[in-house]
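Our platform keeps sequence and structure together, in a single record for each protein. Such a record has a labelled line for the sequence and another for the backbone structure tokens. Nothing more is needed to write down the fold, since each code stands for a local backbone conformation. For reference, a complete record is included directly beneath this paragraph:
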Amino acid sequence: MLFDQRSHTEVNSSSKIKNHFKMAKWGEGDPRWIVEERPDATNVNNWHWTERDASIWSKERIKNLFVGAEFATQDASFKITEVEKCEGEASANNRKGKLIFFYEWVLVFKLEGKLEGSNESHNGTIKISNLSEENEIHEIDIQSSIEGDGTDCDSLRKIMQKEGKDFIRDLLKQYVESLEVEFSKGMILPPKDGVHTDKIKNLSTGFNKVSMQPVISNSNNSKENLDTATLKIKEKFQCRARELFEALTRIEMVMAFTRSEVELNPVPGGSFKLFGGNIIGTFEEIIPGEKIVQKWRYKQWPSGHFSTVTMTFTEKSDHTELNVKQTGVPRSELDVTKQNWERYYWNSIKQTFGFGAFLP
């Protein structure tokens, strides 16, 4: 998976501490690394990535917000009568006190409209195809239509287009805000001493959109006689090996740290596309929590040229060590490739999931 543009495996079982059982210490010497006995079987110190499915709740909330909702202008009145389509999913996720909300919905509503002073109602629809955490409310595409011909229908269409969208966006905003409020409950637990710190953050209303400018290679755009080199990287993360592996293979977690849309199929032969297509490739080998091998290329490289990226995960007593070996990197791109791994992968993963430092 991998870099240059700023959009289920199981939840780590180590985060689920069984009632009345004492787990072993991990990271002796720092109490924040000790998995404690907790009678409520909760996520001690908010350390692990935990997830709550909000899909069923969201469908009901969307229905309650929209069905029966009415708005009026000086010239017309409208009423949403039915949810015709509500497809998608939503979840709330916690990692070390940081809340991240994922949601993606395609919505279609049935609509009735009536001109002021008229007793005749006209049917229509409202379509929303990109309600997700990737888009701000004002960026959401709202399409409306009114069935039929004639001046009344034309007038209703114009009014809906001009004045109805703000009303719909307000309802969508209410959904997002209530999702965050409802699914924040119980996700951020008080630490052992009962004191929260100001470092607990909520990353709920979409990810920062970072535009990464492509690096223009000075190398000849040809695979023939291409001078390549091998890049070796060693990086430490304050998490378990399984958690780091999931951060690189679970699509919602990859979306979180890349802050972009992701195409990802983490199975042998499966493909991936990240950072607006700047990075593409396929998985050659994948061993959960232990190893990932990829054919990997940056789009500025000579056409058709792929490197081979091998990642190995080694869990230590108080951290996980990641060793990356990348063969076949164009020599002229070696330094910038290393910098981009550091900036857009390791630093972003640590910052997003709290894998870089202990909570104070």
About this structure: Confidence is low (pLDDT under 50) at residues 1-47, 188-221.
